Amino acid sequence: MDTLNPQVLVVGSGPAGLVLALSLAQNGIPLRIIEKRSEFHQSQRGAGVQPRSIELYNFLGLYDEIKAGSIPLLPVRNYKLPGGTEVESVVTLAASIDLAPDVPYPNPLMIGQDHAESILRSHLAKLGIQVERSTELVSFQQDLNGVTAEILKRSDDDKEIRETARFDFLVGADGARGVSRKQLGLTFLGEPTSHHSLIGDVFVKGLTADVFHNWRPSDSKEMLVLRPTEIEGLFYIFLSTANPADYQKISASKENLQAFINATTNRDDIIIESIRTLAEFRPSVRMVNKFGEGRVFVVGDAAHVHSPAGGQGMNSSIQDSFNLAWKLSLVCRKVSPLSILDTYSDERLPVIQDMLAKTVEVHKKMLQGLKNKDVQAAWDRPKSLNQLRVNCRWSSILVDEQVEDHEGAKAIARDAYGSETDDQLRAGDRAPDAPGLVNIRSNEKTSLFSIFKPTYHTALLLNPPDLPALIEAFTHWPSGTVKVVMVLPQGGSLTMDLPEYVAVLEDREGHAYQSYKKIVNGGFHVGMIRPDGVIGGIARGTKGVDTYQKKLFAMKFVFLGQKSSSSID
Ligand SMILES: Cc1cc2nc3c(=O)[nH]c(=O)nc-3n(C[C@H](O)[C@H](O)[C@H](O)COP(=O)(O)OP(=O)(O)OC[C@H]3O[C@@H](n4cnc5c(N)ncnc54)[C@H](O)[C@@H]3O)c2cc1C
Ligand SMILES: *[C@@H]1O[C@H](CO)[C@@H](O)[C@H](O)[C@H]1NC(C)=O
Ligand SMILES: *[C@@H]1O[C@H](CO)[C@@H](O)[C@H](O)[C@H]1NC(C)=O
User: Fold this and answer.
1) Architecture of the 8-70+111-185+288-385 domain
2) Ligand 3 pocket member 497 (CB < 6 A)
3) φ, ψ (nearest 5 deg) of residue 125
4) Counting ligands in written order, which one lies closest to the CA of residue 84?
């Protein structure tokens, strides 16, 4: 990779910045990623990984490591007070769903945010990219051709080195207080929350690691949760009190924290061995009016912050990055026009709006439930939070021939989190998985989710009538941008020779035709799956394929504002 001429500057090495950097790097896009901290943080923070986020880690090739490093979402055990040892109730947080063929990872996982970040960094390192620490974005200026960034590096002996560097694009993954959003002049409207808490990681003796331990004295504002982590003896601590002034005192020393624990649990056998991190957490509920301007974009907390209740924060942040990364890659490779980058904001804004509304709702229900002593209601989470039905059906770069006049896509109702009762499969939806496929040339078993990758589109040909014409249609796509996969129905066989580059799979267990039956039964034989695992196009045949291809790769605007020396490979 050409690391001497980085095209993209990623600012911030939290989950959002790292996922963006890794997706770009896998696409072969030269980049730099800078982090103003001198040491990486060590804390659990946003530890819950939603099913849709697990799928994303799978597409990036990280699933095995994330899985090995995590623990399942455990039930919450509420203790009776006074006494603090007797069980009052046990609440399950996420319904453990049976494995469905199209949903390979139905249940959330828990892995410390620091741990997940280190896995992401190690994969970046394998591609030759190191996060540059003690390196801060000070300011930037953009013009039609690129972005000039002022960067400040602090050396080990604390000398300041200033640098001016030029990039094609800048992505601000610099968190809620980052400079990127501020300098872009995006609004960040919302409200500060009234909800304060102390959050951190502590080593504890005297508690089992099989449940989340929860005590709640009579005042509904008082609460203590100690949640086991993937590290033995380490617990994530969440506490809130009626008087926010207490927080400073409690976090000032181990003894003070111990005194709070003794008092709140009414027990003397829970021993704090050491505090790794403990800090006040006061999330507000805010979001930007758009996700970028010109050649500068914001992802993650830089674009939206919210209550951790319902846990959408980190999950949504990495989904932002995944949505942007493939588009940015195509534009950096100079095969797609700059205008496709506008769809990042168009596709994510309604999702984040919906998400904020949902987390506010969950937060209210939680407080209400706690007040009414109805713990089940308090911990109840709508299923939609697994984000499997999050969609962007309204996006202008989709093609869906099932819907008449998709050009009128703006008219499509926006239901960004999707509905459980909607049984349609549309462009803009998550592409379902299908296991049990067999490659008829190599006889190897595979699944759709092992084929989808962040580096190309996957064209699924589902028993199409005019196969040669369709295969020819995909040769018009820029090289390397699409993988063509012929999926034969269960028991089906190939009646003609196909070029080697077309993968031929048999749907040995029938799951693929089951998952995509809505499409096939309607006479639509092509599903074009985007690099972010979203269905980009649903077509009858070559006409729809060409329409979609033109939307992505139409070059009429391509040189506008790009380096004049550039050319299409
Ligand atoms: C103390 C704390 C506790 C939290 N606890 C929880 C929790 O319990 N549950 C939960 O769901 N969420 C929690 N969150 C939120 C969760 O961590 C975020 O939603 C998530 O980290 C968002 O990822 P991100 O990559 O967008 O931003 P961040 O993780 O905030 O990453 C931004 C990075 O950019 C760096 N940076 C900032 N400015 C610059 C600059 N100018 N130049 C270079 N680098 C810069 C920062 O140092 C930081 O490393 C917590 C956050 C914090 C800070
Ligand atoms: C992600 O989703 C899971 C599953 O619902 C949730 O428990 C977790 O808190 C979320 N994580 C973040 C950081 O938002
Ligand atoms: C908490 O309880 C334990 C056990 O009784 C006791 O040893 C310890 O001193 C108490 N700590 C504080 C700070 O009150």
Assistant:
1) 3-Layer(bba) Sandwich (3.50)
2) no
3) -60, -35
4) 3
Nearest-CA neighbor of 29 among 169, 132, 163? 169
Domain boundaries 74-107+196-282, corresponding CATH code: 3.30.9.10
Nearest ligand 2 atom to alpha carbon 381: 5
Q: Give this prediction's pTM.
A: 0.93
Digit-coded pLDDT (tens) for 359-383: 778 777 777 777 777 777 776 777 7
- CATH second-level architecture of 392-557? 3-Layer(aba) Sandwich (3.40)
Residue 228 has pLDDT above 70, yes or no: yes
Give residue 268 CA to ligand 3 midpoint distance, Å.
6
Q: What is the pLDDT of residues 418-474, one digit of tens each?
A: 887 788 999 999 999 999 999 999 999 999 999 999 999 999 999 999 999 999 999
Local confidence band at 512 (pLDDT 50, 70, 90 cut-offs) = very high
DSSP string spanning 327-348? HHHHHHTTSS-GGGGHHHHHHH
**Taking the chain, what is the end-to-end CA distance rounded to the nearest angstrom?**
16
Burial class (CB in 10 A: 0-12, 13-18, 19+), 163: exposed
What is the rounded CA–CA span in Å between residue 217 and residue 220?
A: 7
Residue found under tokens 């390196």:
135
Of 491, 498, 483, residue with least CA distance to 531: 483
Classified as helix, coil or strand, 158 is coil
Distance from Cα 313 to the centre of ligand 1, integer Å: 10
Residue to mutate, 35, 42, 44, 45, ligand 1, most ligand atoms under 8 Å from C-beta: 45
State in Å: Cα 283 to ligand 3 middle: 32
- The stretch 393-397 carries a mean pLDDT of 94
What's the pLDDT tens digit per position in 73-93? Answer: 999 999 999 999 999 999 887
